[in-house]
Design a protein that fits this description.
19% helix, 41% strand, SLH domain-containing protein, alpha+beta
Amino acid sequence: MRSWMNVGKIGAAAVMTAAVMSYGQSAEAGSGFLAEVPVGDWSYSAVNELITAKVVPDYAVAIPEGRVLSRLEMAMIVDSAMKNQANMTDVQQAALNKLNNEYYYDIKKLTLLNRLDNLDNNQMDKLNNQQAGETLTKEEKAGLKKAAALADKLSINGYARIRNDHYLKDAKDGTGTKRSTRANMIHIAVNSTYKINDNWAAHTDVGYRSSFSNFDDTKSLSPNENQTGLTVDGYVTGKFPKLGLDAKVGKWNEWNIYGWGMDIDCDFSGIQLTQGKKKFKTYFTAGQMDLWDDAMGGDRTKEKVTSLRFFYPFDSKNDINFGTSWSSAMASRYQDPDQGRVFYYYAHAHHKFDNNWGVRAGIINSNAKRDPNNAVASTKTKHPGRWLQIDYKGAKLDKPNTYGVTLTYRYEPALSWPTVTDWCGLNEKFLRLGVSYVPYKNILLDTFYTWGREIDTGARSDLYRFQAQFFF
């Protein structure tokens, strides 16, 4: 009898295949074969009920609270339970069928990995004899072992994205509404991870953007949406298990719906520490980030930031995220640059009503001072920022024909918000309707329309997007 901790030995060939078959990006609940099942996910309670009822062969101990499993591990438990359906009640079988639907493709991959793993050296030699009439040489076997060892340590994933964004803005000269291209580009990202040991890994993320709008071959090592160029990020991640501490050090792109307040999308350089052995997590982040100050009227290319964030999932349907951050004052946000750092404080909550409906809400404020050298600053609102989002269903990359709908309201005063988030313009409020759809596995189509208005002037700034993404 084994416990949930003993997931078995997966051989080099299996790991190699898993690396090829998994993908790193996600849409809603879709994720890679080796990705973690989020803390608080319904799967934990569902499998624990089956394990506690002693209907899962070879699993006698329930998953401890706060223990994080990969989709691979969860698939192993579900696969084992599927072999014992005859001894389950109708309620247990219904719960198992739901789990099987969620991890169906993961179980298929697991079956393939097990078959590959059962090909030991003798079987490999036998197979080679049948196909080529001779066994592998000692040098060839050594080469295969080296390749398998590398496959055990190296994994690669990424995506290709085609994006088309357009603004409908009120002209500053009062001549009416003007249409302009915000982004018309292709973006390819290849992300590699090298496992140094059981606790540490090195990452290299390489991206290439090519604009369809600028045909002068504008080159940049940090291209914006309408430039052509290459981006290279390098960082390391590690764990200190006894301390319950995770670390991330280097340069990476940070996209986080739970970020500083509501969400954040920026290039970040520095360190991020995560502490918490159970559900409650504490995040400490220090470094510098690009918040587009110089692109929107300021003169900073990088902003210093130090933040302390807390996250707690009460259960599978409710969580709360709150914290503080200290970021460089930005002239583009009408903030007084002489203030040095601006202090922000925020809270963000999430609730799932059922498998279809969910809601997010948040509020953020700051102690930013108005820029005395900018006459317009005195006319700008100094109220808390607010966010409300309603979600229906959710597109899942591993499940064709799934879709998601979101309706979002944002109110983002420049003086109260540390970054331009989710493509909301400077000092704007908006209502956005978005739809995402998965026509085939690992292909995501999404679009939205934004009815945007400048908070204090009411100037129109609508934005609409059409985008296709291909994950591998």
